[in-house]
Amino acid sequence: MEMEVMENKFFNVGLLVVATLLVAKIISALIMPRSNKRLPLVIKAWPPLIGGLLRFPKGPIIVLREEYPKLSNNITFLIGPEVSTHLFKVSESDLSRQEVYRFNVPNFGPGVVFDEQFCFFTKALRVNKLKGYVDQMVVEAQASCLLGREVRDKLFDDVSALFHEHDNGMQPISVMFPYLPIPAHCHRDRARKRLIEIFASIIASRKAFGKCEDDMLQCFIDSKYKNSRPPSEGEVTGPLIAALFAGQHTTYLLRFKEYFVAVVEEQKTLMKKHGEKIDHDILSEMESHTDFSVTTHEGKEYDIPKGHIVVTSLAFANRLSHIYKNPDSYDPNRFAPRRDEDTVAGPFLYIFFGGSRHRCLGEPFVYLQIKAIWSHLLRNFELELISPFLETDWNAMVVGVKGKVMARYKRRRLSANGL
């Protein structure tokens, strides 16, 4: 009861803060001078100024599909290869990632995944490190190769629950108001504090007993800043949280029998060549795919004012009908040779991992992990989807599905020459 009263109090305070900010925004919009620049088109919705923001939690696909043919306030969406070049290739001095990603400070800590900590990730995701992660991926998925043996052996349930609570603290409203005192943010802050305590204990134990493990946690522990200072426990925990946050992915494979059969056949081909072995080199044989002005593909020019936040929508940009045939259909073959829909019309067509200066450092890790886990599952289990494939949950910043996806499985050993 006490917790409910406290959360209601936080919610009321949050509403008051939002209302105050919205009133200030309306007043500023009325008194700001008009510009003669060719400004981007603005999403029109009721009520004025905030209508688009209220629509967005329903999912970017719905909003952008409605507005893209017509088409932002201080957030400018650059969607499509014709206008994405500036977003992906411009220097940090022109488009500051740090400034935009301030909303992530409560999630990962100050400076995390920026500045010198980029080097921490680069070191942890080198090919020589990835080669050592494969066995752990197959046996324990992410728990061991990212979080460490101690979490896997003794604390996995606790840490998993804390990460889940932390993930739920990232809501669409968190992008605009990361410190808003709502229940989700309160749970997020408590979870992060407890995670730092857990990893501080693990780090202290490794240092005290001179232990050195082959995992990402150890890479972060051993890293040094340019001034030779080692990262603090919080500066180690933050990148780990960021790595797990960025490393979540959803597969539609069980929903489409023709592609499921194809990947099982791919495993048989690998087994004929390499037997039961799974390692980095074998998995590499599996197919994977890897104040300025902009001009749209219709030839329209827009001036992006200084101070605007420039973003793209990966989900919608990869569903543009003038680039992809039947873009809403699950069709992995669109990336196959002779179709090459992701490259045939130029750069920045397929941007699920960003591009150029904004390319995801974890892309090799993600592909390796998906291949390793699915190789193990396909070789050892028959799998069948028995529940409807559920609706996409656009309210979560890490997009998954609403509810539970149920699958039937039966243990069996896949033979290279047949089942």
Automatic annotation (TrEMBL):
<dbReference type="GO" id="GO:0016705">
    <property type="term" value="F:oxidoreductase activity, acting on paired donors, with incorporation or reduction of molecular oxygen"/>
</dbReference>
<dbReference type="InterPro" id="IPR002401">
    <property type="entry name" value="Cyt_P450_E_grp-I"/>
</dbReference>
<dbReference type="GO" id="GO:0004497">
    <property type="term" value="F:monooxygenase activity"/>
</dbReference>
<dbReference type="Pfam" id="PF00067">
    <property type="entry name" value="p450"/>
</dbReference>
<dbReference type="GO" id="GO:0005506">
    <property type="term" value="F:iron ion binding"/>
</dbReference>
<protein>
    <recommendedName>
        <fullName>Cytochrome P450</fullName>
    </recommendedName>
</protein>
<dbReference type="InterPro" id="IPR036396">
    <property type="entry name" value="Cyt_P450_sf"/>
</dbReference>
<dbReference type="InterPro" id="IPR050529">
    <property type="entry name" value="CYP450_sterol_14alpha_dmase"/>
</dbReference>
<dbReference type="InterPro" id="IPR001128">
    <property type="entry name" value="Cyt_P450"/>
</dbReference>
<keyword id="KW-0479">Metal-binding</keyword>
<feature type="binding site" description="axial binding residue">
    <location>
        <position position="360"/>
    </location>
    <ligand>
        <name>heme</name>
    </ligand>
</feature>
<dbReference type="GO" id="GO:0020037">
    <property type="term" value="F:heme binding"/>
</dbReference>
<keyword id="KW-0408">Iron</keyword>
<keyword id="KW-0349">Heme</keyword>
<comment type="similarity">
    <text>Belongs to the cytochrome P450 family.</text>
</comment>
